[in-house]
Amino acid sequence: MRRLLLAGFWVLLGIALPAEAHEVNLVTARVGLSPDRSVSVELGLKGSDVDRLIGTKIYDPRRDAVDPVAVEAAKPAILAYMGTHLAVTGGAKACVAGDAAILADGDGIVYRNSFACADAAGDLIYRSTVLTEKDKAARQVVLIAQGRSETQALLDAGNTTVTLSTAPPSLWSTMQRYVITGIEHIFLGYDHIAFLIAVVLWARRLMPVVKIVTAFTIAHSLTLSLAALNVLVIPSRIVEPAIAASIVFVAVENFFSRDVDTRWRVAFLFGLIHGFGFAGVLRDIGLPPNAAVPALAAFNIGVEIGQVAIVAAVLPMLRLADRWSGGDRSEPVRAAGLVYTFSAVIGLLGGYWLVARVFEA
Length: 361
What we know:
Oligomer: single chain
Helix content: 40-55%
Number of helices: 10
Largest sheet: 7 strands, mixed
Strand content: 15-25%
Radius of gyration: 24 Å
Mean pLDDT: 84
Order of helices and strands: HEEHEEHEEEEEEEEEHHHHHHH
């Protein structure tokens, strides 16, 4: 049965060819600092985020693209928003902004402007609450270029500024932020959570769970590292449907097999695919050029913390359900109806995600 399921999985994977999936709640900015204390800013934002921020209608979800004509019509509103939520200052004085440009860019927009800071004393500070003032889970990645050197900062609702003309953030600060980002991603990644729950539903002993989690961790850490460092990259139009197909696979397998002792092999196989999914998020956020490996390790640690927390929460609930269904038995058993019900729900969710991602246009 497992061979048949695996064959079906690869068939589903083979048809997963539509457009790239894109991250929401993420702003990317490139800030350039010149010797004459002028600052250039280029900021990218997804069209659907622009619509919910400003109330415009520039984004077409069916095409996953913005309408250039609608972007041009919305330009005054977008510029007004940017003027309120983005600034460069020197000391207590605001730098003089130039003529801003708003450009349609695929599924989003690009904002470009320059700021003259020659008359502003003190360190130059970039401040942005674009998107983060609306959504506390949003993030803004800022690449700071000065001459040939580049540093990177990560802004959120609680950290809205970065100093441009001083030393980059400390290594410890960078690692803390990437650990938190990894934890947040696993808890907000409902497909990863569904996979983890489905794969341990029949587990009643600790050792099989340890094997499953370890195999999954090793596998996705491997592909996460390879993809994040651009050694091996698979397009998200293939990875995202494949992740959904892996959820369907383990959910269906629960109806035909209760053998959790060897399920670490399946966890390893699909962990390789999930690792590419984690890497897609990390590539969108970016790795700081001066601390790429520590940031990658910190993100992976964050993912593991979230993963262990999920499994640690699910197993006691399953054991409690065993006791309720075991009656007067000295050794409670796992109720098949419970596993089948959860597997059916997870399988339907996975199927929905698979169809949505395959046919997303």
